[in-house]
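Lab notebook: predicted structure, single chain.

Context: the supervisor wants predicted structures on file for every construct in the current expression panel, including those that have not yet been purified. This is the next one on the list. No modifications to the sequence; it matches the entry in the shared construct table.
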Amino acid sequence: MDGPAIRQWLTALDHLSFYELFRVETNATYDDLRHAFHAFAEIFHPDVHTWRPHGEQAAIGYIFRRGTEAYRVLADPQLRLRYDEALANGILRPESLVIEGEAGPRSLTPSAMPSNRLVDRIKNPGARPFVLRAEELAKKGDPKQAKIQLVMAMHMDPKNPALEAFAKELDAAVAKQAEQSKKAWSKG
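Prediction complete. Output recorded below exactly as produced.
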């Protein structure tokens, strides 16, 4: 796939229904959808395009996220029913598909997709496990170890602004912990 083909996909993306995106009929079975999504992923998965310039990688990532959104909606019977109702009213991509379930409401709108997660903003897939571990350690309250993991990710994905910003947050958390330890030690 070359640059012009990627631009054509970007241009057409907002005019395609989720079914058209996968080239399946509206009565496609779950297995049909799964096969179609796998074929789509073979072409558009970001890991396949790491050699491309950053702009093309970003475009392919956007197309892949749209495909993931489409698959999640079409693979869920309740969401698919709501999507089909919206499609019947001429809405190709509803802004909000929310269903109530045992775990509470869930939304599969683009803003609810994990595109704001740090791991989705890395350019080198090799950095992914280190970023995930860094986030996990930070949530557990261990910013020192999180920073070590993040440094490994930053070596694999240098000059990534999202990683640099997270590093600053971790530095501040480490400094805060050190200050708290110092105060606790001086009181004891």
